[in-house]
Structures
1.
Amino acid sequence: MNPTMDPAKELMSPGHLACAGCGAAPAMRWALEALGPRTIVVMPACCWSIICGPYPHSALRVPTFHTAFETGAVTAAGIRASLDMQGLQDINVMVWAGDGGTFDIGFQALSAAAERNDDIIFVCYDNEAYMNTGIQRSSATPAGAWTTTTPGGKIRPKKNLVEIMAAHRIPYAATASIAFPDDFISKMTKAKGIKGTRFFHVLATCPTGWRIPSSHTVKLARLAVYSRAFPLYEVEDGERYTITVHPRDLPLRDYLEPQGRFRGLTKDQIEGLQEEVDRTWNRLTRLAGWSS
Amino acid sequence: MKKVLMGDHAVSHAAMLSRVQVISAYPITPQTYVVEELAEACRDGRLKAKFVMVESEHSAMACIIGACAAGSRAFTATSSHGLALMHEMLHWASGARLPVVMANCNRALGPPWNILCDHSDSMSQRDTGWIQFYVESNQEALDTVIQAYRIAEKVLLPVMVNLDGFFLTHTAEVVDVPDQDQVDAYLPPFSLPYKLDVEDPHSFGAICLDDNFMALKHDMQAAMDLARDAALEADEAFAEIFGRKYGLLEPYRMDHADTVLVTNGTITGTAREVVDDLRRRGVSVGLLKVRMLRPFPFAPVRSLLGDRERIAVIDRSVSYGLAGGLACEIRSALYGHDHGRPRVFGYIAGLGGKDVVPSDIEEIVNRTLTYEQPPRDDIWIGAGT
Ligand SMILES: Cc1ncc(C[n+]2csc(CCOP(=O)(O)OP(=O)(O)O)c2C)c(N)n1
Ligand SMILES: [Mg+2]
């Protein structure tokens, strides 16, 4: 399943500070594998601010600019403007933000950059909570999930951010998964060739926050896709939807039950969540022209 | 070439003459003409720059931080609530040691809403690691923005040039606009010792929980110390080419003055008139204009004020529960040093655009001469008390 990558050429080095089984670590590897060394990474506050390594170390072999939590997209826009003034149009500027830095505090600047169609790649690695600060809920936390600030489980469902980004009519928006590196890398390679705002929503398993063994990271990410909790698709120019990986007919239960954060759910609640997943999936298949 | 320019346009001319490469800003009265003119200049080709039209001031500052880190001379302008919204990013700019320049059109903060001049906006940002200037005229606004780039790029700290909202921003004055080739001779093309460069990759701003953190902060303070000399050098070099010079402080008619008024911004112009008038009437009063507030010019303040009898500081803002910020700084400069012990009277005046007219300043001088001791650390003028 893994792409064959040459360790000597990899742009992310071992010795980074991610927890064992952190899904956000392979996500960075797949992204940089596609983008290559002529890439500048913009890093708003998130787990990756730590994973990257403390001064004077860095786990990345590309220039990395740490910035305030809510400023990923616009800091990248500023870098882009400068590079364009210097005639360096070929350099990729990639924002690497968590779900908080994307769905919540970072959303205003992201929406503005998308409206301007700034020539940047914005990657949200979504671990479905504020993990850096100790597992507090975000608007990307799914319904039913325990976090330290939703001790009884979150009530409202996750925002559909890809659709919101698509509504900005940006040239490219896609979901991606660490369990499907071929799909991930081919989408990122495609995005690299497009000008304008490109948005990636990557589900990044978090063993600490999801209450799963660290050895189950990839397995859970795969179950999320196969159970249609996190379908893999892309949206071009805000309207052309393509589902890129066929899910399997697995019940949502198979994805939820191994995770400690869903332990409090009753059978009825799981059924309710299943209905929500079915509704969302049906909508997606309609948009992708699979059904009418 | 002499032109009649409002303060806002003096600032936008200065940004163009400085050949800024990336601009990002968000509109707020009384700054709007600055950015409208720059948007126009980017469109009609007078300026080769990218203007990123952002959705907030917080983003404007983040944008020019990114642009500067990637190797471009960058500019923004704001005011009041816009500056307050930027607060977090002001720390990011200075902490990242990025020589960006910003014009701040001084304006009060609400509530209640008020669009007129006072200094609460910039005074609230004194601790953010920005060099701060306060100017008295549109000419000085234009000249100081150009000087600001030379200073910033020398010491690697950002510079904020403050000009009084409406009193300067929207008031037309004759301004001598320098020739581009003269400014080019004064301001070399932008370059940074470190920038975001794919050929030489580095990480900027990575977490630092060890002793290096404190060392880096100490470096910032050392750069602030250097900024005083850098500002003097920039001013001297400016005088050589353009024939105008401002200093960090400007003493006015201070010879043998027992009492000295201390002002910044446009109140200074009015105070000059009052001092002239009082001198004619035999009152021993002088004036000290504080042009550079950060780094604070401690040594010259001490030597210029240390042996006077009475100092009257006029603040156009207040630190609630304390007193006027400038008065506090003058007091802190004078205390505990080996010179006389002038009595420092701190006055609060001109909040929310309230005019500070000659009779107000005369009242300030009269009160200062009459009081035995300051009745409080903040004496309010024109608050109906
Ligand atoms: C303005 C501001 N508010 C709060 C914080 C504290 N903070 C740092 S990271 C973080 C959570 C990040 O969550 P997310 O974006 O999901 O990334 P993750 O940590 O999960 O990788 C928070 C709340 C901050 N750095 N800045
Ligand atoms: Mg998160």
2.
Amino acid sequence: MSLGTSLIVWVCFLPEVNADWLVQARGHSHYCSLIGGFPVSHRGGSEGFANYQDEALREGKSLKDEDVLQHLPVGTTATFYFRDLGAQISWVTVFLTEYTGPLVIYLLFYFRVPFIYAPKYDFTTSKHWVVHLACMCHSFHYVKRLLETLFVHRFSHGTMPLRNIFKNCTYYWGFAAWMAYYINHPLYTPPIYGEQQIRLALILFLFCQIGNFSIHIALRNLRPPGSKTRKIPYPTKNPFTWIFLLVSCPNYTYELGSWLGFTLMTQCLPVAFFTLVGFIQMTVWAKGKHRSYLKEFRDYPPLRSPILPFVL
Amino acid sequence: MSAAAQGTSKAAHGDVASKKKKGPGALATAYLVIYNVVMTAGWLVIAVGLVRAYLARGSYHGLYYSIEKPLKFFQTGALLEIFVFPCNAFGFYLSCSGIVPSSVVLTGFQVLSRVFLTWAVTHSVREVQSEDSVLLFVTAWTVTEIIRYSFYTFSLLNHLPYLIKWARYTFFILLYPMGVTGELLTIYAALPYVQKTGLYSVTLPNKYNFSFDYYSFLILIMISYIPLFPQLYFHMLRQRKKVLGRTEDYSKVE
């Protein structure tokens, strides 16, 4: 049933509310069960369909999925405001799609599939070993991301707007194609400082990959399975997490480091552009996260910066 | 009971708060007025320059050279609108003319495309400067900008003559297509020279592993007009209905 963009509903609490109908009788003082069982708040579970979420007790702040009507600061009747968030898609679906693309696309360029380069180069391989190394690193990075999406991350929100998948995939797939084109080009020029530069870049890349993974694990462990609690992350026994002393979002810091490593390794301007754009976006996210940490926790460590120690 | 009542009254208060509009302070208004007056004057200079050159030569060929410098100066100056004076684009001060804010993105995009055409095409490819298509878009820009900047000036001073408002939301109907035609023809005319000289292009191999083909880029720009121009045009048509439509209603009441 379609409820339009907003709907004001007077509700009374009853011992049990059937998921199929909405009761509008007044005067009862019993309370409902979990808000998830409430008729118009069903989320469907299936991706890509319209969802009504974020029942708001007052205009502005939305309720969480786990909120129980019984415990809300209202009397026996309350007004619920609903907002149509539009077509939604699950985070997991978006992540899997946007990360599989670069993995496959890069390999198409690496194997020099026809119609990309001149026909005499079809299915040839580069004579530079750094090109093979770059392919391994790039592929490893996205395989890691896919596995983390499936097994490591615990998402706060189930879904995001559907149009995001088009936006995100264009970004990831587009940049992957652009980078891969030059790195795997027959006329590719290897780094100026040769093996030294490549070795340093590889060390930086691997260090930051491990670091990024460590942070993801640490963040996962903050949150018991199935819950959406939020806690301040702290350094653990793993030295890669000690960066939490200085930074709120070290996963982004390490991600930046990985791509700097990849830029250095390939000495490719499009890769540098990709790193820059990613850095800008991650800084925006990190600042937002940092701000919400500060808002939510009174005792948040003051030494921490959002993404770069002491700087940003 | 009381908690619910509190909830509703807070919601009502929220409504009132959101209706209050934010406007620029006195100093910002002064800056904006000066800017818009200067820009109006600048484009008037260009208009007068075109007319004088036409009368002097007796033909409309090659008039670009007579207004080249002020055109570059004032069109580039419009960059201030996206980087320094977003108020212009947001239309904060359009209180007297109603509820029509223009979008920073659309205005910004338009200014950037104009600056691109002025410098990266017309200035960079000397051979197109004598083309008639250049006169076509310069004329369109000149008339549009004179009206637009005087519109902003009067709006800021809260004394907007209906004629100016009408002109701003009507002249574009002819001037937009005229300008776009001039722009596209000019880019098209520049293509052979760009291809021949490899202007602004970088080829492989090089140590940055990067390449850029300005010729293909220009073709892409031309193609982008297809989705973008209709959007801008219909946006203006919708604005027109909103802005001019209301006053038509009022006149019916009288």
